[in-house]
Design goal:
- The chain is of the alpha+beta class.
- The protein has two domains: about 200 residues, Hypothetical Protein Pfu-838710-001 (Beta Barrel), CATH 2.40.320.10; about 270 residues, Alpha solenoid (CHAD domain), CATH 1.40.20.
- About 55% of the residues lie in helices and about 20% in strands.
- Strands 1-6-4-3-2-7-8-9 form an eight-stranded antiparallel barrel.
- The protein is globular, with a radius of gyration of 26 Å.
- The two termini are about 40 Å apart.
């Protein structure tokens, strides 16, 4: 068994010749056909356990491969893999040399194995060697995944580390992306094949809080937190690109907000130039997705509930017609941003930054000392400071202007992201109550912000319609705003109580 360190990238079919012509690759190699059959039980027990079992035919020989669940490093993957020759394309479990993996697969396979899907592609391989002894295998795969009568194309570039540091993969990918547009992919051929066989559409996922317990340093926390944000981003990217599910855009924006918030949390221990570039790029991308999210919320959460109650009002048909166009246009803009070279450069640079722990590259200073200290005391100090700011401002909530309430909402959101990130450090009912009250307060403030945004969006929609449609649309817009103004007025009392209740709550603190 060995640890496979791999970065998978997607390219457009029409760019295949550009890839082969890159000076980095050198002499053109001859491609070889590979046919792989993937096996699982009828109940997909192996998939549930994160295990992949395949038999690949290459150069007239059969090679059985078993991979188990690994870990992420930037946009790449590190996972155990074991291969061995077998006589036919049927799996031979007794040939698995690793005892633990053999037992795992054998127990799962007690329900019998069957072919689930297969891949057929041509692989062109190039070994890249570097002056420091580093080596990277570059594979260009072109073909298809087949599951029953369903097919899906394969146009993948795989970079596998053979020797040297992991950040080499991201450096090479950046070189290629400068000439050939690429997209980082976290979906393996196996996961794509399973989804194709099951008829699954790309779904969305929430942020997974990192475990910061034990002897975790500030540096470890930076790595785990940023990696979690990157996983969240890449895990929802396909949903944004290939479906109209509003959660795709929403979860990608949350990932970016969390990333920016995380960088801000650790700003005192990060080199200023690195912090500036990362936050600027995160801010750029967040801005490109803002319109798509605003129109989704406006349509589904602001206009939608009111339209149900006023189904006979003709103006809502006008509003909905205009909304369809705005949502479509803003979604196209969001997808262009995610498909851009700049986005891929951002993901690859962030991945390399993590793999290198690049914050170590600057001269030692006070921040360098703190970065090696325990994360618990760092988290306590930071959360106490942010809580104090929210508490002090919360005492003036009743007299705040609209602008001040907007800033208060942002400060509450920052505190929510911080406590959520460090949540694994805190135990007990007090911490649970604090997080619960903070979440409810953020939700209430978020609704108020959505209504404020809706006023501008309604005005823009109504101005874009003329004649009778314009009159009907303005009437419907007025009904929508009136409805939510009434809802806001009713919510004012409970919101003030939530603010008061929260600022009376003590922030969590670790026991050391």
């Amino acid at each position: 068994m060995y640890q496979e360190t791999e970065l998978k990238l997607l390219f457009r079919s029409r760019d295949q010749s550009l890839l082969h012509a890159l000076p980095l690759i050198g002499e053109k190699a001859k491609g070889r056909p590979l046919l792989s059959v993937y096996y699982d039980t009828p109940r997909r027990d192996l998939r549930r356990r994160g295990v992949v079992l395949r038999v690949r035919k290459a150069d007239g020989r059969y090679i059985q491969g078993v991979k188990s669940k690994g870990r992420r490093i930037g946009g790449g993957t590190v996972r155990p893999e074991i291969e061995c020759p077998v006589p036919t394309e049927a799996p031979l479990l007794s040939a698995i040399a690793d005892g633990r993996l053999k037992r795992l697969v054998t127990r799962a396979a007690a329900n019998g194995l069957e072919p689930v899907f297969h891949t057929a592609f041509t692989r062109t391989s190039h070994r890249l060697s570097f002056d420091d002894g580093g080596r990277v295998m570059l594979d260009i795969d072109v073909g298809k995944i087949v599951a029953a009568t369903a097919t899906e194309p394969i146009c993948e570039l795989e970079l596998e580390l053979e020797a040297g540091p992991a950040h080499r993969l991201f450096d090479v990918a950046r070189q290629i992306n400068a000439h050939v547009p690429l997209r980082v992919s976290v979906a393996s051929k196996a996961s794509r094949g399973y989804a194709l066989a099951a008829g699954e559409t790309p779904g969305w996922s929430k942020f997974a809080r990192p475990d910061l317990t034990g002897k975790v340093t500030v540096e470890d926390a930076i790595t785990l937190a940023v990696q979690g944000c990157l996983d969240h981003l890449l895990g929802n990217e396909t949903c944004l690109l290939e479906t109209d599910d509003p959660e795709g855009v929403h979860q990608v924006r949350i990932a970016l907000h969390r990333l920016r918030s995380t960088l801000r949390l650790f700003r005192s221990v990060l080199p200023a130039d690195q912090y500036r570039w990362l936050t600027d790029e995160t801010k750029w991308l967040t801005g490109r997705l803002a319109a798509a999210r605003d129109w989704d919320v406006f349509s589904d959460e602001i206009v939608g509930p009111v339209a149900v109650q006023f189904s006979a009002e003709p103006g809502f048909a006008v509003l909905r017609s205009a909304l369809v166009h705005r949502r479509r246009t803003s979604r196209r803009a969001a997808r262009r941003a995610v498909r851009s070279k700049r986005y891929t450069e951002f993901v690859l640079t962030l991945s390399g930054w993590l793999a290198r722990r690049q914050w170590r590259s600057h001269k030692p200073d006070k921040g360098s000392e703190r970065v090696l200290g325990p994360v618990a005391s760092f988290a306590d100090t930071l959360i106490a400071r942010r809580h104090r700011q929210v508490r002090n401002d919360g005492h003036k909530f009743a007299t705040m202007t609209a602008e001040q309430r907007h800033q208060f909402r942002i400060d509450v959101k920052k505190l929510r992201y911080a406590t959520d990130l460090f949540g694994s450090l805190y135990r007990g009912k007090g911490a649970t109550d604090y997080l619960g009250r903070l979440g409810k307060l953020q939700d209430s403030l978020g609704y108020a912000n959505d209504v404020a945004v809706a006023e501008d969006l309604t005005r823009g929609l109504c101005q874009s319609t003329k004649g009778d449609d314009g009159a009907h649309g303005r009437r419907a817009g007025a009904i929508v705003l009136g409805w939510h103004a009434h809802a806001m007025a009713r919510a004012a009392g409970p919101l003030a109580k939530r603010v008061k209740r929260f600022i009376a709550t003590r922030p969590p603190h670790t026991k050391r």
